Every structure is written in C-alpha cells, then in structure tokens.
C-alpha cells in the first residue's frame, strides 16, 4: 500500500473501468455536520443548562437539588473522559464526594466547601490504597478524580451564590449563556468546511459562542432587576466561552465517543461555570 | 491477474482535526484488494503518523455513507475521515 501524490478533487484518477471514480462525497465543500457532532452531548448540555436556569429561578432548594443530580452525572461520566485507569472506582469516589460537596451548600457560604473537597481528596487517595501495588496510571487516575472534584465544587459555588436574589439572577443568566453558546456546537460543521485552518476554525467558533452567549445572557438578564445589561453581558461572555471551550477541548477524547463520556463532558461544561457565577454574584452583591 | 486488478486506488478526504493532522485536504492511497476501511486508514496513518489519535475517534464516510472499519472498500471509492468537532 502506498500513498500517491496529493490530489485534489479536480484531478481524480480514472478507474479500471475507464469511468470517473465515485466523487460525490469528495466534492463537498463542507463536512456533513450531523456525522461530526456528538448529538447526545449537545442534548445533555442543553438539558443541564436549562435545568440550571429554571432551578435558579425556582429557588435555593431547587438549585441545590439540580446541582446534586448534575454532580452525580459528572461522577458517572467524567472519569473515562479524564482517562482514569479505574473509571468505575473513580465514579464511586466522585459520587461520594459529590454528595458531601453539594450538601455543603446547605450553609449559605463557602465555609464547608473546602472541607468537603478535602474529604474528596482523601477518598481519592484511599481508593488508590486498595488497588494492587502496581497501581498502573496512578497519577492520571488521581488527576481524573481531582478534576471531577474541581468541576463539582465549581458548580456548588453557584448554589451558594444563589442564596441571594442577585446570585440567583446571575445563575439564571449564566444558564442562559451556556444554552446560547451551544450555537457554536451546532455551527461547527459549517465552520469546519468554510475555514481550512483548524485553529482559525476554533477562533471563529469561539467568536460565535461569545456572541451567542452574550446575546442570550442579556436577553434573559432583562427579566431580572438585580442584573444590569452590562453585568449580564460579562456573565454571558465568560460563562458561555468557558462552557464551550471545555466541550471543544474534550471532543477528541476517546471516551467522548461513548454516551457515558458525552454525558460527563457535557454536564461538566455546565457545572464548571459555577465559579464564574459565584465571583460575579459576589462582586454585584 | 494484472497489477491493475490486485490494487485499489482510494481517495481519502480529511476534515477538521484530521486535516490539521495530515496537512492535506485529500490524497489517493493505493492498497491491495480486497481491502477494508481499516486497512485504508492504517495506510493513511502510516503516511501521516499524527493522524493516529484522531483516527481512533473519527467517523468514516465511504462514498457518503457512515461505515465501520470492517466495511469493504472498492476500487475508486471515496473515504472521508471526519473527526468529531462538537458535542463533547
């Protein structure tokens, strides 16, 4: 087998039959977007972000409950995405930690959050101690666990922020931004065909995510007196971009080919904006 | 049996991250027949080692239809290597 010189569509060889070779697919100027988009991931991102948005408007208890469900989804889906060598064990570690971390938000400040994360770190190391001595992939597995803890803690910080009306409004605006930023995922096939350079395509998609997120955040922000248009735009820009960027970075991870991986990456891309929302809510308070 | 009958020429087109990994939009590969998508992809990876990681998660379209690595590739076929670009 041997490659022959590079060939564009206009100079295709002629087959043994003397007829032009099948060319329909290679004549396309844009890739078939449906085949390149992980639709489960897109759907899960939308559902998770809408749930966050609605829960923020329903109240503290609703946001706490939704965040706990999303945190448990991350516990299940995140370990293979982060290339844990023992994904099921890491899922158990993250699930136990998720309960502790999210319930630390029962207190309306971050006082218990650090202790809950410390519990998660402790459980992560204990899980390694019961593995056979070779402990293949020890560092990667620990990092997968710690990464999950960071995502869950970030999501929980948004719950704490929502103990005030301003924080709840910021959380709702952030959820809207994440929903709107999915526009960049939906347009990725078109951009991949129109922009040849992969990095430039990423830049174009980042601009799309940014613009859509700001528009979505400002639109929803008009429904809340606590958040002005400027603050909504800032929340939208940062939350939308962070959420989209995480999905973009993770999309080539082998585990994202599976439903479990898509759920993990997508829900993580929603929870990870929590720290942004907490910071803005604190500044506005 | 002539040489022409024992070899298949396949046009391989790369999209997005696959294009970035190979540095080309498309190329033609000559492989022994009978052949499969997996064999053609292995030939492409041999020509562009950076394609290896991308090819593990890519979708393959054979003459516009999504297929697995076991699909039989005929002489003159067009194979597209389409990495996921959203939804992860």
TrEMBL record, chain A:
<feature type="transmembrane region" description="Helical">
    <location>
        <begin position="227"/>
        <end position="246"/>
    </location>
</feature>
<protein>
    <submittedName>
        <fullName>Uncharacterized protein</fullName>
    </submittedName>
</protein>
<feature type="transmembrane region" description="Helical">
    <location>
        <begin position="60"/>
        <end position="78"/>
    </location>
</feature>
<keyword id="KW-0472">Membrane</keyword>
<feature type="transmembrane region" description="Helical">
    <location>
        <begin position="112"/>
        <end position="130"/>
    </location>
</feature>
<keyword id="KW-0812">Transmembrane</keyword>
<feature type="transmembrane region" description="Helical">
    <location>
        <begin position="200"/>
        <end position="221"/>
    </location>
</feature>
<feature type="transmembrane region" description="Helical">
    <location>
        <begin position="137"/>
        <end position="162"/>
    </location>
</feature>
<keyword id="KW-1133">Transmembrane helix</keyword>
<feature type="transmembrane region" description="Helical">
    <location>
        <begin position="36"/>
        <end position="54"/>
    </location>
</feature>
<feature type="transmembrane region" description="Helical">
    <location>
        <begin position="168"/>
        <end position="188"/>
    </location>
</feature>
<feature type="transmembrane region" description="Helical">
    <location>
        <begin position="267"/>
        <end position="284"/>
    </location>
</feature>
Automatic annotation (TrEMBL), chain B:
<dbReference type="InterPro" id="IPR012675">
    <property type="entry name" value="Beta-grasp_dom_sf"/>
</dbReference>
<dbReference type="InterPro" id="IPR016155">
    <property type="entry name" value="Mopterin_synth/thiamin_S_b"/>
</dbReference>
<comment type="similarity">
    <text>Belongs to the MoaD family.</text>
</comment>
<protein>
    <recommendedName>
        <fullName>Molybdopterin synthase sulfur carrier subunit</fullName>
    </recommendedName>
</protein>
<keyword id="KW-0547">Nucleotide-binding</keyword>
<dbReference type="InterPro" id="IPR003749">
    <property type="entry name" value="ThiS/MoaD-like"/>
</dbReference>
<dbReference type="Pfam" id="PF02597">
    <property type="entry name" value="ThiS"/>
</dbReference>
<dbReference type="InterPro" id="IPR044672">
    <property type="entry name" value="MOCS2A"/>
</dbReference>
<dbReference type="GO" id="GO:1990133">
    <property type="term" value="C:molybdopterin adenylyltransferase complex"/>
</dbReference>
<dbReference type="GO" id="GO:0006777">
    <property type="term" value="P:Mo-molybdopterin cofactor biosynthetic process"/>
</dbReference>
<dbReference type="GO" id="GO:0000166">
    <property type="term" value="F:nucleotide binding"/>
</dbReference>
